[in-house]
Amino acid sequence: MKIRTRLTILFTLITATILFVFAGIIYISAQEDREEAFYTSLRKEAVTKANLFFNTDVEEQVLKDIYHTNSKILNEAEVAIYDTSFNLLYHDAENVDFVKETPEMIRQVLQDNELRFYLGKRQAIGQRYDFRGKIYILTATAIDWDGYHKLNKLLQNSAIVFVISILFIYIAGYFFSKKAFAPVKEMTEKARVISATSLDLRLKSNGNKDELTELANTFNEMLVRLESSFEAQKQFVSNISHELRTPLAAIITELELSGNKDRAVHEYKLAIQNVLSDPKKLARLLNSLLDLAKASYDPSEIAFRELRIDELLLDALRQVHLTNPEYKMDIHFENHFETDEEICVNGNEYLLKAAFSNLFENGCKFSDDNKCTVEISFEKEIIGLRFIDHGIGIAPYDLTQIFTPFFRGDNKKFAEGNGIGLSLTQRIIHLHGGTLSVTSEVAQGSVFTVRLKNLA
Ligand code: ADP
Is pTM beyond 0.70 here? Predict the structure, then answer.
């Protein structure tokens, strides 16, 4: 069931309950009022008749005649007068006698002064009447036709008003909820047409400061993020294609050239040597991409364990040295650590080694002296690593871009590369809950600072 229908029904049900309770209270209180008013009128009629009977010379038969005539037109009460010994002194209609008084009834009236009861629809009253020092008992009974009629009318009118109100409320609720949910419907329709190829579309917000505007804005913000991430993906794929195509084209050309005629063995060797650098470049690129993919995993899927930073740095240094024996790398401790926990981090060995290798390699390859030093320092729960080189440095604009995948700075001609190293390094450090920052000056050198949480 749609929320709109559910809300309308709920709203109608709540209103119906309130109306029902309201009408019920009014009906019950009208019923009580009618009952009370009729008992009062019975009491008055009984007293009037007793006054006439005792005080005036009106004959008993005349009183009875008045009763018979009036009871047909005016709904007059049937009155009887007894003395305390249950002797009947007067009765409006002995032959009918609705009340059927008993000595027990008389005793009860004497005890409580008044007795009220129903005989079917008929109300009856028994009451004490004092006259010239003597006590008498009066009974009176009649049916409150008028009161019942008014009550019935009230019930009927209430039922009609109730049904009409509920119908009206349901229809009004249906239209109001339709109006209230119109923006949601519009949003749903708009969202339905947004796909990977139309991520530039945005939901319309009505400008009010309400929940729907908030929803539309949040949705639009999500679209902006999705759009930029899709753009980044597209850019990434086109960069990779480009990076793969260039060395492959070079290999094909080289092989075609060397195969188009018979050559001496030393020429073939030379050609193979020339070709070899391109597959190596490709292998490096693919390794970096693989690492980048690993670093993009969910941290919960990567195995973390306790690692000593100095050992990791040494391993990374050796790894870089293996492929670039001319690089000179050093490790310095700025201050001493007191416990082993201070130099340990919780991390993934393979990824951290890849990150440190990149920083060492960059420091060396962008320096004339091929030198890079890492300084290790400890402060509270943080290990700081500063990879320092005195190389060619990075231009201010490039500093803001160097962590973007495939970006290579103005100084790229100085050394070979594919522009993935730093983005990979940054991703790995973030994955470990750390930070990577850089300061650099052209022709002075660069300092890349890694800050990681230790186990202290
Ligand atoms: P690559 O080194 O393969 O070009 P990176 O992602 O490692 O890619 O680095 C991106 C760019 O940042 C490099 O092309 C270079 O312009 C700049 N860079 C990184 N490290 C240094 C450094 N130590 N000195 C000077 N420039 C650097």
Answer: no
